[in-house]
Amino acid sequence: MNNQKVSLYRVIGNVVGNLGLKTVSNYVDDFARWAQDAELKIGSKNSYRHYECELEVRNKRAQLPPNFCYLEGVKLGDNFLNVTYREFRMFNDNNSSNLANGQAANINTGVLAEFRNDNLGFNFGYSNNVSATSNVFSIVNGYIYVNSLADGKKIGISYQGLETDKDGWPLIDKGHEDAVTHYIMWKYKAVEFYKGKLPQAIFKELEQRWYWLCAQARGDDEMPNEKELQYLGNMWNQLLPLPPKQYF
Fold first, then answer.
1. Range of the domain at 71
2. Both 40 and 106 in a single domain?
3. What is the value of pTM for the model shown?
């Protein structure tokens, strides 16, 4: 698996060179946003990095990290919290009707290793028992809401997020460089297209090129490595029947 990352400025340099732009100072924020969109649309294992952190609860909620993409697990002490399908910001605490159909769904069911280390002081055991007074959570608009927790309490989260540099710009997987570059080119030229200044054929060519490179990047990331191929081969050999004895 390729874990090398390239700077956003390198990708911007590719765009500048490919389109012959004189200046991009007014578009840097747009380029960063489009680069993040491209990585999320590729959405392979190389697009994200595993993170673990603690969040402090204030007014029954905690702000999610700025690079947050999707949640893997939530822990309070040595217990995994359950997710409710409804927002509980507007209804009473400790009420079983707060839970979807009187129950909460545990997103961690069957997943025992979302927290890959114990540097946050958590144990790995958890319970799926959900009662009317159980702590549950929901995620709304960049915040994770947790019922029945006093201010100052901390929860631990395990999540997948985009890796960023020291300036907060997204880092791009090296294998995604061409795809992200062409996505930014397509989005940049889309402005001209919508103004009627770019032929549709060129716009569609940029669009199709992005789709092809996106699929290529995703496919390369999901290809098994040498050890995985050997493991798959061993599995296949176990499924094949033994040859007849007369061939020995």
1. 49-161
2. no
3. 0.71
